[in-house]
Amino acid sequence: MKDIFIVEDDTLIAMLLEDMLGDLGYRVCASAPDLERALATAKDSEFDAAILDVSLAGHSSLPVAKLLDERGKPYLYATGYGSAPEGSISTLPVLRKPFQLSELEQAMKRLTEA
User: Fold this and answer.
1) Which of 35, 73, 82, 96 has the greatest number of C-beta atoms within 10 Å?
2) 104 vs 58: CA distance, rounded Å
């Protein structure tokens, strides 16, 4: 599992996440800053796993998560809210912002083991 799709509406956080993933040996193959682009990418692109911000400019990323579930793609949430969005059925890790490289590494390990 090397190719990661990032769904994050904050450009600086997306860039930091891409750098951190690179340090851990992953490659960001796609990213989306809003719900519309995230849904299109989740539907039509090839990647191994995804990292989803819970809130995208006030919209829940839950529709993206449901699409990933349908495709059998693992994902984790990265959020400042502390938990997955209401209605989420995911048992995968939730990465709490702000996070350190070691926390991202542990979350990615759990994601690959799921």
Assistant:
1) 35
2) 24
Label residue 58 by pLDDT band (50, 70, 90): confident
Rg value, the chain, Cα:
12
CATH topology for 2-113?
Rossmann fold (3.40.50)
Nearest 5°: phi and psi at 95? -95, 115
Place of tokens 């851990």: 24
List of E strands, 1-114: 3-7, 27-32, 49-53, 55-56, 59-60, 75-79, 94-96
Average pLDDT in the chain: 89
Q: Where are the alpha helices (H) located in 11-94, listed in sequence order?
A: 11-23, 35-44, 62-71
Identify whether 63 is preceded by a cis peptide bond (ω within 30 of 0). no
pLDDT of 112: 81
